[in-house]
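Quick one, tokens below:
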């Protein structure tokens, strides 16, 4: 009945810096990066991951964000309490629990993901 979804992987072969925030870490403050950010811990603050074609934020299953996210690409499998704004793709995996609004260019939602908010396509706003 449902087709298997193909989720985007980071571009291989490209030299990219990766920031990993560990499961036991708690960050209180804003995070700004232009590359790959993998979040396993807890962030209380806004996250901005933009500026390069490979800029991607991954909120992993054990992670929790209390703040707004602005990212070129956003992959969510954890908890986000705040809005997500993306100029590219947003992916909500089965473990995602988002309490906030999402604006996106393209979107993928896996069965089991939870969204308590509104979705809006950024391309639709331009027409």
């Amino acid at each position: 009945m449902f087709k298997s979804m193909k989720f985007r992987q980071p571009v291989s072969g490209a030299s990219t810096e990766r920031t990993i925030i560990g499961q036991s870490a708690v960050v209180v403050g804003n995070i700004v990066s232009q590359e790959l950010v993998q979040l396993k811990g807890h962030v209380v603050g806004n996250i901005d991951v933009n500026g390069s074609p490979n800029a991607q934020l991954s909120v992993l299953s054990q992670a929790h964000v209390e703040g707004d996210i602005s990212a070129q690409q956003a992959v969510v499998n954890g908890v986000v309490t705040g809005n997500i704004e993306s100029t590219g793709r947003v992916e909500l995996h089965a473990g995602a629990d988002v309490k906030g609004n999402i604006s996106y260019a393209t979107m993928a939602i896996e069965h089991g993901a939870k969204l308590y908010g509104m979705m809006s396509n950024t391309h639709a706003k331009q027409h």
